[in-house]
Amino acid sequence: MSGGVEWALHCCVVLTSTEEPAPAARLAELHDVSPSYLAKQLQALSRAGLVQSVQGKAGGYVLTRSPALITVLDVVEAVDGPGPAFVCTEIRQRGPMATPPEACTTPCAINRAMGRAEAAWRESLRSTTVADLAADVASDYGPGALDGISAWLTPADNRGASSTRGRAPAPPPT
User: Fold this and answer.
1) Scanning 7, 73, 118, 162, which has its CA 20 to 30 A from the CA of 99?
2) SS3 sequence, 103-150?
3) What pLDDT score was predicted for residue 1?
4) How far apart, in whole angstroms, are the C-alpha atoms of residue 136 and residue 71?
């Protein structure tokens, strides 16, 4: 799995707490990641219909549907594609002790084991939603953690008058 999956999942969790679009630059700064690389992950999420880009001065990204309807598998597949994690290359048909292709009519033991593991992995990711992850963040860091992140993400000119001076304290990690 690519590092982009981690970044995309963190962004989706953060977007559960925002009422306003979250600017890509602020999301990158929040997670201390490359803005250009994060932009690629956000574009992948957008192409998959998981987030939407909102244009304008107060633009940024928003989730397109309830976080309870976005699975971790949706995000993984948006970023890394739907292909299998393991691809058998039929190594048993190579080398001095190669098995002839006509004898390889069923997947080998390694291919079967990897297929079972991948099916279990995908089922686990399919059964976990972005809402579940956000609830875990609230449990790990306290119920106000995501609210603090949301306040930090809001551009200064969109905040209330009392919060336009200085910068909000750094939020806890997501």
Assistant:
1) 118
2) HCCCCCHHHHHHHHHHHHHHHHHHCCEHHHHHHHHHHHHCCCHHHHHH
3) 86
4) 14
